[in-house]
Amino acid sequence: MKLHVLAGCPFCIRVMYALELAGIEYQLQTYFQAVDLKTAEYLKMNPKGEAPVLETTHGVIYESGAVLRYVATLKPELGLNGRNPFEAAQVEMWMCNTGGFTGAVLTVFPQLFGKVPPKPEDLQKNLQNIHDKTPFLEEHLSNKEYLTGDSVTVADFAFLSILSILYQFIFPEEQRNKYPHILRYYHKLTSLEFYKKILGSNRRLANTEFKLPHPQQLTAPVETKVEEIPKKFDLLSFKTLFVNQKDRGTVCDTAFETYDKESFSFWHARYDMHPAEGKELIATSNLLTNFVSRIHDLGLSKNIVAIHGIYGDEPKLEIRGLWFWRSNGFYEELKQHPSCEFIQWTRLDPQVSEDRTKIIEYWSHIKSNEGSVEGLNCKVLKII
After folding, report:
1. Phi, psi of 169, deg, nearest 5
2. Most buried of 13, 275, 297, 383 (most Cβ within 10 A)?
3. What is the pTM of this model?
4. Whole-angstrom Cα Rg for the chain
């Protein structure tokens, strides 16, 4: 079988949970942008242009709920659809019951990563909606290890994939502790092998409550005044050159020769990996996609030109990048990004031979799966 997934998609991850727990061999085809699901070839499999899609010897199945139930029938002894007719009905019931919770979380999640316009007033309303949906689940899990029965079912896979988003990106510790039974349930499931095979162990959890800046902050001009920047260097024009110029030497030379040293600077970025991170490409791609999306959400990309991506090979993947921004020092607005504290930032001076070589090396490779940087293979690269 072949499973087509979109990186970071919780509906895809829940299917991967089922395949791993069932011990079913499958080929994984990962897409990193939603537009990749709109090609003519993909639309032949799923006219809706969504993921996941499972190719089987009998044909194609899409919609995560349908794929989950199909996988469960391949190993009926595991009871993933329930171990008897009553449990099967309960599994269906809890797939429906967690639907409201799923909708509440996924209404907030796109705001956090720039998929919809960030509106602080809507965020607070949507966060409250999550809290309104959660006590019902908390009460149900007060004396249970799983949503139904005495073992994992597809209903648990569906709930866990959304709960992981809530705990890793939205609810800080104070909010998580308000629902101790759900938290216990989460730690139970994430300790099981099917989860660790997909997303690793000891996942980072949100440590501060996420707050969107006021919309005016997103459009406010940076402190550096336009008139202070020499007319010979224009960041927007340079970004266009950066993206389109095939001769990467020309790109680097243009930057080195024309940028204003009093108003711009070069920086090397290296994500501080948790020991459990960087094992699998799909999980690491989720980290990268979320980080870059948040940069755009905060409106920071207009003052940045960067290549940021995944380098190395499984199980030792790294997230690194080479950044150039409109500030002579650290770009303070970046501190609004919730993951900024996990990045090691090192300023580079192109007048120093070693630093200049590093800048050229990173900026000479802007396409995924082509070449290597600092001895590490380029895997997934994103231009900011």
Report:
1. -130, -20
2. 13
3. 0.61
4. 23
Distance of alpha carbon 209 from alpha carbon 216, whole angstroms:
21
CB-based contacts of 172, cutoff 8 Å, min separation 6: 206, 207, 208, 209
267 forms beta bridges with: 323, 347
The CA-based angle 167-173-175, given to 5 degrees, is: 80
Per DSSP bridges, beta strands 304-313 and 376-383 are antiparallel
- Domain CATH number, residue 379: 3.30.70.1010
- Specify the number of domains making up the chain: 2
Contact partners, residue 174, CB within 8 Å, separation at least 6: 209
Please write the tens of the pLDDT for every residue from 58-104: 999 999 999 999 999 999 999 999 999 999 999 999 998 888 888 88
Q: Do 159 and 262 share a structural domain? A: no
pLDDT digit string, tens, across residues 132-176: 989 999 999 999 999 999 999 999 999 999 998 888 888 888 999
